[in-house]
């Protein structure tokens, strides 16, 4: 305590002391909430979480003692120990616990500016796979699954940059039936803002649709499934031929040729790329050559070839792949002999939707 002579020289004003106490209380409330956010984000549980709070509070008190009270708290408070060191510590504990439990429970939050992106992705793959895991980590949301015949594989990656904000505290797999997901996504308008949320060890995934031009907010929960799905490592491949072309052109070729045959032979040479088929009612062929249109670059056709390639594929699968044409103006085909065909649709922020299709062996077109 300050002696009487010190009080005469530097009197303690009651209004100032009350102001100091309120300031400390406000700092306690703010830092308690921040500590709760940090503890929840770090995934702290039980005693480590409370120890984190009390240590953090002690550090805050030490900073106030050193920087604001000039190491002389008796000059600023009637009861330095109670007001500075222990004041509102347990009151701030309630704010800490509230934000701690809220942030700890929420594991994933991803906000997509336009719901139509996910709608189109699901529409493109739902006929190939029925149930699949959406693998979420700090890089984004990925999907990999094979069709029932193990002929085709789909691989999707939505990078974290595609979302704003994006948060995923730990790796998590969300097993979802795509038919159920499509039904829920149909409830959203294309321009709606989509937010995907999941808690720790979730039973459901939460989806919130916000109308961009009104106050309408709709919320749905989709039950999750426990899907035992093997994640295949896709090796990097140096393809002998790479063709970039308008996705609408590729869709048209597949649609036209499927009327004649079940298979298509894709032959890539220095003259161009040829799509040919032969069926019961006749045969058909479409040949494309490299083409550059400065005014309409979306119509460009680029062919990079290191060696000639000729492979045969099922048109049924290619027609299914073409359902992704609405996602991108262009499509890239990558071919090598005795290697699955890669059909890639590039999305924004380096995201992508890829299809792999095994060639037919010894099959006549």
TrEMBL record:
Instruction: Check the record and name the PROSITE patterns matching this protein.
Output: PCNA_1, PCNA_2
A Pfam cross-reference name: EMC6
Provide the topology term for how it sits in the membrane. Answer: Multi-pass membrane protein
Q: What keywords tag this UniProt record?
A: DNA replication, DNA-binding, Endoplasmic reticulum, Membrane, Nucleus, Transmembrane, Transmembrane helix
Q: Give an example GO molecular function.
A: DNA polymerase processivity factor activity
Q: Where in the cell is it found?
A: Endoplasmic reticulum membrane; Nucleus
The Proliferating cell nuclear antigen PCNA N-terminal domain, residue ranges: 107-230
Q: Where is the Proliferating cell nuclear antigen PCNA C-terminal domain?
A: 233-360
Listed GO biological process terms: error-free translesion synthesis; lagging strand elongation; leading strand elongation; mismatch repair; regulation of DNA replication
Task: Check the record and name the InterPro entries matching this protein.
Answer: DNA_clamp_sf, EMC6-like, Pr_cel_nuc_antig, Pr_cel_nuc_antig_C, Pr_cel_nuc_antig_CS, Pr_cel_nuc_antig_N
| Bilayer-spanning residue ranges | 50-69, 89-110
Q: Which SUPFAM superfamilies match?
A: DNA clamp
Which top-rank group of organisms is this from? Eukaryota
Q: What does this protein do?
A: This protein is an auxiliary protein of DNA polymerase delta and is involved in the control of eukaryotic DNA replication by increasing the polymerase's processivity during elongation of the leading strand.
Concerning PANTHER family, the annotation shows: PROLIFERATING CELL NUCLEAR ANTIGEN
Regarding protein family, the annotation reads: Belongs to the PCNA family. Belongs to the EMC6 family.
HAMAP family (alphabetical): DNApol_clamp_arch
The entry's protein name is DNA sliding clamp PCNA
